[in-house]
Amino acid sequence: MSNAELDRLRDRLDEINAELLSLISERAEVVREIGTVKEKQGVPKFDPEREKQMLEKLVSSNKGPFTNSTIRTLFKQIFQASLDLQSAEHKKSLLVSRKTRKEDTVIELPQGVLVGGAASLMVAGPCSVESEEQTRTVAAALAKAGIKVMRGGAFKPRTSPYDFQGLGMDGLRILREAADEYGLLTISEIVDPAHIEPALDYVDVIQIGARNMQNFELLKAAGEVRKPVLLKRGLAATLEEFIHAAEYIMSRGNTEVMLIERGIRTYEKWTRNTLDISAVPILKQETHLPVLVDVTHSTGRKDILVPCAKAGLAAGADGIMVEVHPDPATALSDAAQQLNIEEFNQFYNDVKASGLFRQ
Ligand SMILES: O=C(O)C(=O)C[C@]1(C(=O)O)C=C[C@@H](O)C=C1
């Protein structure tokens, strides 16, 4: 085939493509109108019977060269795209969605501490509240380092029922007292809806842990109170599931929700979980909520905390969470991965020196 002939045929194809595009776009406009009518009538968008009729009609007038099966496949694709268009247009925007609120949500904690604003937040503290002395030692060190918010687990959902389960309400009291003594704010995980109300006296932020991300009764209870909530991503939760879990809290009226990526379960064994850095910009794009990164639980190893914290901040995270214990070797939980106080100071200095931690 001469080049001139090939060019002529391709020119013709370009014309046909343009006609097809114009026709499928025109079809899409009609589909949109049908979508609006169906929405008003409250009938389902997907209509398999109608699709079957259209396919039969098309196949019966098909003169080739495409086989009937190919025609079916091509048109099914068009129907699916049409359905997607109808669904996207009538999808109710979530309260947590950027579509609902363009501006970033900035959460104001007591003492004027802002989460999601101009400054980055460093949350640090022991995995578990183990004793008054241990908690006070950490609180003193954190206050000295300039940290404002201390974490500490009192209710510990552990893999094994034989592992330390936390000090419960007593642990919350210890955390509050140590925090008050050193002018810190508190974050602690609550696992039972019935504990939310009593915990309000002790915590400045309610944490909902990874294992409870889809504990819907707990999410609803956290949505009923007016206290900021830090929601952790579930071990195997998709971002869509994570966002919907946050929606559970918001739909009950509590607008102060922060998200925290804490690593997801993959086949990789060299880290405890896989830190999903891509979750950070996606959550920032899809929602208006502050996003933090838990470097301790995601990696489970101390030697890569600094680069992972930097990666989180570079990806747009509003804050970092890290675990600190006065004597990690004797810790009742997460012994292998908590920083001692000296290591924490080094970690915090390195993160600040990177220039990525906004102060
Ligand atoms: O005819 C309809 O009811 C439509 O919504 C349009 C349309 C189509 O693309 O033809 C789209 C989705 C339905 O499953 C069936 C058909």
Automatic annotation (TrEMBL):
Residues 6-33 form a coiled coil. Its EC number is 2.5.1.54. Gene3D superfamilies: Aldolase class I, Chorismate mutase. GO terms for molecular function: 3-deoxy-7-phosphoheptulonate synthase activity; aldehyde-lyase activity; chorismate mutase activity. One of its GO terms (biological process) is chorismate metabolic process. InterPro entries: Aldolase_TIM, Chorismate_II_sf, Chorismate_mutase_GmP-bac, Class-I_DAHP_synthase, CM_dom_sf, CM_II_prokaryot, DAHP1/KDSA, DAHP_syn_2. Residues 1-90 form the Chorismate mutase domain. Keywords: Coiled coil, Transferase. This is 3-deoxy-7-phosphoheptulonate synthase.
